[in-house]
Amino acid sequence: MKVGTREEWLAARKDLLEREKELTRRSDELVRERQELPWVPVEKEYTFESEEGEKTLAELFDGRSQLVVYHFMFGPEYAAGCPTCSAIADTFDGVTVHLANHDVTLLACSRAPLEKLRAYKRRMGWQFPWVSSSAGDFNFDFGVSFTEEQQQGGADYNFQHFPTMAPLLEAETGPIAEQAVATGTTPAGYMQEAHGLSAFALDDGTVYHTYSTYARGAEFLMHFYPILDRAPKGRNEGDPPELWIRRHDEYA
Amino acid sequence: MTEHKVGTREEWQAARNELLEKENELAERSEELAKQRLELPWVPVEKEYTFETDEGQKTLAELFDGRSQLLAYNIMFGPSYEAACPGCSNLADHLDSALVHLNNRDITLLCFSRAPNEKLQAYKQRMGWQFPYISTNGSDFPFDFELAITDEQVAESEELQTTLNEPPDWLQNWAKQVGTELENGLRENPSWIAFALEDGVVYHTYMRSAPDRDFVVPYYQQLLDRTPLGRRDEFFALRKDEYERAGAAR
Predict the structure, then answer these.
(1) Domains of chain A (ranges plus CATH)?
(2) Do A30 and B23 touch (CB under 8 A)?
(3) Could you give the ipTM of this predicted complex?
(4) Does residue B217 fall inside a structural domain?
């Protein structure tokens, strides 16, 4: 820590502010580019288990014209949802009312059976709709679930091809092993799922896929990170970063 | 709905890959700025400030509540307002979810406003918030840290006088929403502010005020930035318990 005078702070702050504003303008441009992406009609029929029975993708819009799906890591073999995804869900749960009133339905989707999702949602005290895609290809088609063959022989994630996950699946220590323990499964079970966010539009009865983002592209969802980035000590996670995020009912 | 370009999966993928490059580049720059932010000098706070809270009077150091870092959002809720700014309220709506995670990272998260404590606590109850909501009423604190400006400063600001002479419709509407005259309403500065506590000394470390499309905005705007239609101007900010009534009125 460097201690300074108000004048020194102000000079450094002004310099930083310029750069922050530049970043904001750049971010604004990217938002415009995002909206220029072509919309791709979704031709396959997907069905989901919801608390109100079976639903198609179009029905998930719930009368609105836009749908945002958070791909929450909760695979069929998990005993509990991923802790990091849970912290993300904490964050968006409080704002779904605002999105709903901006013509946007936000929900989570996972591959675990509906009853598991319901029990976990009750435990966490969340309100957002959470549907199960256990029956179909939805998670695989949108790049957030992997078969055993893909784990061994390679697949795409975050628009990149990875050759094999095999070495990761044998990890006995490190973040993947820790997350596997936290979700009550093996590294291989845990790594069947990945997280991300996908957006869809509904127009004249046709559903369009408009956007997906994965890995750190979905980091904006963890809104405590931008807050941490303004704290005096920043993220303060060490190197390599420690896995500090717990479920909100699991902090000591 | 807006006219939109429809494409094939391949066309989408090509455009998406190009965008991904830029998104990654933006993330890298954002990381650089986070590093630069940590380089800011810490400025010792030499003046003693006290605040009215539900647990009696507290000093700035006491607001840290045993932690070493304090992050606060200054909600526009001046002494003459009837209710806090709806946009600021929308921003505050996501803070409770971050509370437990940040508290466990040695960070106290709270909100400040200049209205008296009773007004803040009543509004906090209405909104169902859990975070500490601290009144800066009667203290120099908001003026020293540019969280509020005086009548004289309003009178001297050419920019504010121009706005006050010909306020845009949305701003007139906003003044009605918060229940005060615009010239009073514009005295509050929506901002994030950060402090550190070390060896009994409080340091001011950071501040960021609106406008800022990415941080000094409600979190849901970030989600809207990923939706097909983005942030749409036809929606203006309402408090979370006001949508139903507004819907019925439409």
Answers:
(1) 38-228 (3.40.30.10)
(2) yes
(3) 0.92
(4) no
